[in-house]
Amino acid sequence: MNMSEFSSLVKISSHTLRYYEKIGLLKNVQRNSSRHREYSNKDLNWISFVKRLKDTGMPLSEIKSYADLRELGPSTLQQRQELLELHQRQLEAHIKLQQLYLLQLETKINLYKQGKVS
Protein backbone atom coordinates (compact mmCIF):
# COMPACT_ATOMS: atom_id res chain seq x y z
CA MET A 1 0.00 0.00 0.00
CA ASN A 2 1.18 3.54 -0.63
CA MET A 3 2.00 6.10 2.02
CA SER A 4 -1.40 7.75 1.95
CA GLU A 5 -3.23 4.45 2.44
CA PHE A 6 -0.79 3.32 5.10
CA SER A 7 -0.91 6.63 6.94
CA SER A 8 -4.70 6.54 6.98
CA LEU A 9 -4.79 2.92 8.12
CA VAL A 10 -2.34 3.33 11.01
CA LYS A 11 -3.54 6.85 11.87
CA ILE A 12 -0.03 8.30 11.77
CA SER A 13 0.79 11.28 9.58
CA SER A 14 3.00 10.80 6.56
CA HIS A 15 5.38 13.33 8.12
CA THR A 16 5.72 11.11 11.22
CA LEU A 17 6.22 8.01 9.09
CA ARG A 18 9.03 9.73 7.21
CA TYR A 19 10.53 10.79 10.53
CA TYR A 20 10.38 7.19 11.78
CA GLU A 21 12.27 6.16 8.67
CA LYS A 22 14.83 8.91 9.16
CA ILE A 23 15.63 7.88 12.74
CA GLY A 24 15.73 4.20 11.81
CA LEU A 25 12.57 3.15 13.60
CA LEU A 26 10.94 2.06 10.36
CA LYS A 27 13.50 0.31 8.20
CA ASN A 28 13.63 -1.29 4.79
CA VAL A 29 10.42 0.23 3.45
CA GLN A 30 10.13 -1.02 -0.11
CA ARG A 31 9.87 1.35 -3.05
CA ASN A 32 8.00 0.81 -6.30
CA SER A 33 9.39 1.51 -9.77
CA SER A 34 8.50 5.20 -9.34
CA ARG A 35 10.47 5.24 -6.06
CA HIS A 36 7.30 5.76 -4.01
CA ARG A 37 7.09 3.95 -0.70
CA GLU A 38 5.18 0.68 -0.64
CA TYR A 39 4.27 -0.57 2.81
CA SER A 40 3.71 -4.24 3.60
CA ASN A 41 1.75 -6.15 6.22
CA LYS A 42 5.06 -6.57 8.05
CA ASP A 43 5.34 -2.76 8.22
CA LEU A 44 1.74 -2.58 9.41
CA ASN A 45 2.36 -5.07 12.22
CA TRP A 46 5.53 -3.30 13.29
CA ILE A 47 4.01 0.20 13.32
CA SER A 48 0.97 -1.11 15.20
CA PHE A 49 3.33 -2.41 17.89
CA VAL A 50 5.26 0.88 17.94
CA LYS A 51 1.97 2.76 18.37
CA ARG A 52 0.97 0.55 21.30
CA LEU A 53 4.31 1.19 22.99
CA LYS A 54 3.94 4.95 22.43
CA ASP A 55 0.33 4.88 23.64
CA THR A 56 1.48 3.23 26.86
CA GLY A 57 4.02 5.97 27.45
CA MET A 58 7.25 4.40 26.26
CA PRO A 59 9.59 7.17 25.11
CA LEU A 60 10.59 7.14 21.45
CA SER A 61 14.23 6.70 22.47
CA GLU A 62 13.38 3.41 24.23
CA ILE A 63 11.27 2.25 21.29
CA LYS A 64 14.26 3.00 19.08
CA SER A 65 16.49 0.93 21.40
CA TYR A 66 14.02 -1.92 21.13
CA ALA A 67 13.96 -1.56 17.33
CA ASP A 68 17.76 -1.58 17.18
CA LEU A 69 17.87 -4.78 19.23
CA ARG A 70 15.17 -6.31 17.06
CA GLU A 71 17.22 -5.54 13.98
CA LEU A 72 20.15 -7.50 15.45
CA GLY A 73 18.04 -10.66 15.53
CA PRO A 74 17.37 -13.56 17.88
CA SER A 75 20.54 -13.08 19.92
CA THR A 76 18.85 -10.04 21.52
CA LEU A 77 15.65 -11.76 22.63
CA GLN A 78 16.57 -11.60 26.32
CA GLN A 79 17.46 -7.90 26.12
CA ARG A 80 14.21 -7.11 24.32
CA GLN A 81 12.22 -9.06 26.88
CA GLU A 82 13.94 -7.18 29.72
CA LEU A 83 13.23 -3.84 28.06
CA LEU A 84 9.54 -4.74 27.70
CA GLU A 85 9.35 -6.08 31.27
CA LEU A 86 10.81 -2.81 32.58
CA HIS A 87 8.24 -0.87 30.61
CA GLN A 88 5.52 -3.18 31.92
CA ARG A 89 6.52 -2.44 35.53
CA GLN A 90 6.58 1.30 34.82
CA LEU A 91 3.18 1.12 33.16
CA GLU A 92 1.70 -0.84 36.06
CA ALA A 93 2.99 1.78 38.52
CA HIS A 94 1.53 4.55 36.35
CA ILE A 95 -1.85 2.79 36.19
CA LYS A 96 -1.90 2.36 39.99
CA LEU A 97 -1.19 6.06 40.43
CA GLN A 98 -3.91 7.00 37.94
CA GLN A 99 -6.37 4.70 39.74
CA LEU A 100 -5.56 6.50 43.00
CA TYR A 101 -6.14 9.87 41.35
CA LEU A 102 -9.42 8.63 39.90
CA LEU A 103 -10.58 7.48 43.32
CA GLN A 104 -9.70 10.87 44.82
CA LEU A 105 -11.57 12.62 42.02
CA GLU A 106 -14.63 10.43 42.53
CA THR A 107 -14.55 11.16 46.26
CA LYS A 108 -14.48 14.91 45.59
CA ILE A 109 -17.33 14.64 43.06
CA ASN A 110 -19.42 12.69 45.59
CA LEU A 111 -18.84 15.43 48.16
CA TYR A 112 -20.21 17.95 45.65
CA LYS A 113 -23.21 15.72 44.94
CA GLN A 114 -23.94 15.49 48.66
CA GLY A 115 -23.62 19.27 49.04
CA LYS A 116 -20.78 18.91 51.51
CA VAL A 117 -18.36 21.17 49.59
CA SER A 118 -18.88 24.85 49.12
Give the topology.
Elements: H1 3-10, H2 14-22, E1 30-31, E2 37-38, H3 41-55, H4 60-72, H5 77-113
Antiparallel strand pairs: 1-2
Description of the molecule:
The protein is mainly alpha-helical and 118 residues long. The chain has a single domain, classed as Multidrug-efflux Transporter Regulator, Chain: A, Domain 2. Strands 1-2 form a two-stranded antiparallel sheet. Helix 4 packs antiparallel against helix 5.
Keyword list:
MerR-type_HTH_dom, Multidrug-efflux Transporter Regulator, Chain: A, Domain 2, single chain, DNA-bd_dom_put_sf, 118 residues, mainly alpha, two-stranded antiparallel ribbon, MerR_fam, DNA-binding transcription factor activity, elongated
Helical fraction equals 55-70%
Structural class: mainly alpha
Strand content: under 5%
Shape field:
elongated
Listing every helix as H and every strand as E from the N terminus to the C terminus, the arrangement reads: HHEEHHH
In round numbers, the mean pLDDT is: 95
Number of domains: 1
Query: What is the radius of gyration?
Result: 20 Å
- The N- to C-terminal Cα distance equals 58 Å
GO molecular function: DNA binding; DNA-binding transcription factor activity
Keywords: DNA-binding
Pfam families: MerR_1
Protein name: MerR family transcriptional regulator
Please outline what is shown here.
With 118 residues, the chain is mainly alpha-helical.
